[in-house]
Amino acid sequence: MLAQKICSTARHNGGRFDCRMRSLRYFFGLLILCAALCSVPGYAAAGEAPPQNLSGDSLPQHTAAVGEEGSRVELMWELDPYYSDVGINIPLTEQPIPTIRSTSESVIYGELIQGSLIPRYMVVEASVYPMPLLGTYLKANELDFYKRGRVGQTGVNLIESATAGFQEPWAVSAFFGNIAKIVRPGEARVGSNVGYTGYLVSAGSKHIKNNDMIADHWLELEWKIKGKVDYPDEKLGWSFRVGGKLHDNANITDVLYVNLFRSNLNAHFPFLSWINNSTLEVKLHFSEVNAHLVRQEYIVGKKYPKLGRSYSPTLDIGVVWSSPEEYSGILRTGDANTLTLVFRPSVEF
Fold it and tell me: How far is residue 237 from each of residues 17, 85, 234, 326, 347, measured CA to CA in Å?
């Protein structure tokens, strides 16, 4: 009801985006209030150092303490062809980080969700997506080279396929949520094995459509459950999230979305095992106005692990389906659905 009143006032002072922005600011304010309440002295018991980055789509490879030795504030960074980031992890309470001792995914997910209502950690992060940025640069400045990526008369462009699936070149984010360490029974090493649940607010100033850079101030709010388990012989990553994305550019449709991601690598399983050593990602975007499905992404991948080797070659393939309702005005280029091939060869360390 209060959000409706905010929107009613905003319509007289700035239009649809300002209305929704004010509603999200109201919700974001509630999250900050919860975080502030959690940080009141005496609220929790003595704590310990928090784990690594939690706000991006992958956990970082490097961390460093900020301040004096023993400080629980951490600087985190990661370099990756598709997702690179730098962030600061800030605990909001003195509560110890819980430990989940299980190899069952259902048990891990269930325990992560428990007690996730009140945030106890905050992560502030800036991220950039190098491959999508490279795709927009080549199309804008090296068009002849970009056109050489076409495969005959198929309509497929390998450069576009290698950079598809990202609709923004960079973002700034703030995460509020909870963290748990994950330990395999009988395993003493914890390392970067962490999971988390919470709320993520992200914003940016550009949008990517078919490797064209478009001016657009956007704001995104989501709830996610995410984590990573990394052992010498096994790696497991997952990200399940729901949220909404608002655009200042009136020609880009505001959406509600669901995103499911799971990646598994196990050196003890054969390469042809259909569910192990694989990646699956599904994204569904629905128009905020009429709930029509305006975008679908389906990506599957295969990994080739080998015991004693620190890296595994990977190949992800899939499709991105886009409805003409995803865009309007000058950005709507036709009345037919479009399909884009996704092709991502890589190496996982």
Answer: 35, 18, 10, 30, 15
Q: CA-CA distance, 194 to 189, in Å (whole number)?
A: 12
Residue 143 has, within 13 A of its CA and on its CB side, a CA count of 2
Phi, psi angle pair for 109, to nearest 5°: -60, -45
Per-residue H/E/C for the chain: CHHHHHHHHHHCCCHHHHHHHHHHHHHHHHHHHHHHHHCCCCCCCCCCCCCCCCCCCCCCCEEEECCCCCCCCEEEEECCCCCEEEEEEEECCCCCCCEEECCCHHHHHHHHHCCCCCCCEEEEEEEECHHHHHHHHHHHHCHHHHHCCECCCCCCEHHHHHHCCCCCCEEEEEEEEEEEEEECCCCCCCCCCEEEEEEEEEEEEEEEECCEEEEEEEEEEEEEEEEEEEECCEEEEEEEEEEEEEECCCCECCEEEEEEEEEEEECCCCCCCCCCCEEEEEEEEEECCCCCEEEEEEEEEEECCCCCCCCEEEEEEEEEEECHHHECHHHCCCCCCEEEEEEEEEEEC
Mind listing the pLDDT tens digit for each residue in 129-149?
999 999 999 999 999 999 999
Instruction: Give the Cβ contact number of residue 92 at 10 Å.
Output: 21
pLDDT tens digits, one per residue of 102-115: 878 888 888 888 76
Q: Return the residue matching tokens 């962030």.
A: 87
Which pTM value belongs to this model? 0.77
Quick: pLDDT tens for 161-202.
999 989 999 999 999 988 888 888 877 665 568 888 999 999
pLDDT recorded at residue 10: 43
At residue 275's C-alpha, the angle toward residues 56 and 306, to 5°, is 80
Tokens of 39: 């940080």
Q: Residue 305: name the closest of 328, 345, 278, 343 by CA.
A: 278
Phi-psi region for residue 43, left (φ > 0), alpha (ψ -120 to 50) or beta? alpha
